[in-house]
Structures are given as C-alpha cells and as structure tokens.
Amino acid sequence: MLFPTVSEEHSQMFDKITEGIRSVSGYNFIPYRVTSESNTEHLKTWSTDNQIDGYIALGQTTYKLVLSTESTLPLITGGMVSAPPGINGISLSADPEAFFRHLELLNPKVNRIYYIYSKRNNGWLTERARKISKKYNIDFIALEVNDIKEATLQYKIILKSIRSETDALWLPLDNVTPLNLLLPEILKKSWNQHITVFSNNLQHTRRGTLFSLYPDHYKQGRRIVSLLQRNLENNKLKPVLLPSVDLKIAFNIRTASHFDIHFSKEILDKFDQIYPANN
User: Which ranges of 165-236 would DSSP assign to H, the alpha helix?
Assistant: First the structure.
C-alpha cells in the first residue's frame, strides 16, 4: 500500500482511506511512504523483499511510481480525480446519479444543469452523467474546455444567460477551472437570482452552494480493497475507473431558506454537515 507525503490538510484524507483499507481483515497491508527520494529500483527491491501480490497506490505520485516499475501485478488507485486509461481505481468524484438523485430531492424545480469540464479530468464521468440525466429528465449541458482561459470564459457566458430557479450549475473536481477566483462571482449570481449551485467540494457548501457530495474516505478505502480482491482473483478483468458511491452530504441551510426551500428536522438530521453551523 503506497501513500504520498503531503500537507497536513491532505494527509487527513489519505489517513482515512488507509484506515478503511486496514479495517478489512484477511490481508497483510505493508505501507510504503513515497517521498522525493523514492525511485523505481527501490520500489522493485521493496516489492521483492516483501513478496508483494498487488499494489494499492494512493495519489498521483504513488501510481506513477508503480507504473515506472512495469510490474504486471494488480494495481488499484485511489485518492485521485482521474487516472489514465488502463488503470483500475476509484475516483474522488461522486457518482453523477447521486448528484441527480439529491438534486431531485433538494430542489425538484431544476430541469437544466450546466457543467464545465476538461476531457482529461472528467471526460469519463461526463459520459456517465449524460446517460443518467435522461433518467431524471434533466437537460444536461456539458461544455468541454481545454485550459483556464476557456473555462473562465465559459463560466462568465453561462452566468449571463442562466435562468433563475430552473437552472443549476454543477462544479466538478477539475483543476482546469480557477474556482478559487470564480466562486465569489458564482455565489453572488446564485444568491441574487436563485440559481442552484452544487459541488463535489465540501468547502464550497460552507461558502454558499446549496449542497455538495464528497467521499466517505473510510468506506472508500474498504471498497478499494474489494476492487483489489476482484483483480487478484481474476487478472483478466477489464480495467475500470469508478466514481465514488460511498458519499457524505453537506447542505447550506441559509442558502436553502433564501431559495424558500425548507425541510423537516428529520430530513436535516440525515445530512452529514449543515452550514452555517450555528443554525
């Protein structure tokens, strides 16, 4: 089990995934911390010495290191948004069906969703979202962009034409979009014109999006082990990148109230995070 050396903020995520992995009995998970000094030959030696049967690689640097060994052993990735073709893993991005299902509950007025994405990070997820949107009678408008400049322009165009109450904006995990700069403008438009905005980022709901879905990292760790076991049992399985289905939900009750959306305490108690916290 390989995990990266990261900041304290991100280490909490990897610690939770690792905790979930270790909670599955019947396996001997040997940790390998990837540092700036880690290299291909060292990993090969470590793998041989420890008689490794398969790899769980958390984060970009770890899976790239495993790939460099050209090992034929099963490799499962986690803790990333996307991965190159041919890699098995579970993404940090939530399953689109979960977003559509929660949107139907939280604001059934919405019938059109705008979604700006890069093919490299979210092309695979977008195809799944297109198919599922038909099930929920949602007009899903996915706009592909290649860089920050294109993404910024698309958001500004959408914010000028988006319809009040019946349109929504989905903010995916995609580093092609400078959401740290655009979010204040998006939230202002949302508040003033009752535009539903939802996200894969918990912090966005803290700041004002109606809701967000984010991974339950502990459960995700356990699911990663299940995927590894499948590949240990059958090494001819087709590689697949899966969205997160073990999810938590954050809900902004102030934004909901402003939109005249109200729920009973019984429903609110089912949410994992409520913002503002003092409500």
Answer: 179-193, 202-207, 217-233
Among 194, 125, 116, 196, CA closest to 156? 116
Residue 187: is it exposed, middle or buried by C-beta count within 10 angstroms (0-12/13-18/19+)? middle
Structure tokens at 196: 């539903």
Cβ(71)–Cβ(55) under 8 Å?
Answer: yes
Considering only residues 10 and 70, tell me which one the structure prediction assigns the higher pLDDT: 70
Residues 6+ apart with CB under 8 A from 256: 106, 210, 262, 263
Among residues 182, 163, 162, which one has the least CA distance to residue 174?
A: 182
Q: Where are the alpha helices (DSSP H) in 26-82?
A: 40-49, 60-68
211 phi/psi in degrees, rounded to 5? -155, 165
Question: CB 72: neighbour CB atoms within 10 A?
Answer: 7
Query: Is pTM, for the whole model, over 0.70?
Result: yes
Q: Is 179 in contact with 208 (CB distance < 8 Å)?
A: no
> Helix axis angle, 217-233 relative to 8-22, nearest 10°?
50
Measured distance CA(76)–CA(239) in Å, rounded = 9
* Domains of the chain, earliest start first: 2-91+216-244 (3.40.50.2300), 93-214+248-275 (3.40.50.2300)
Q: What is the mean pLDDT of residues 85-91?
A: 82
Mean pLDDT across 212-229: 95
Angstrom distance (rounded) from CA 116 to CA 143? 5
Helices marked H in 30-147: 40-49, 60-68, 96-106, 119-135
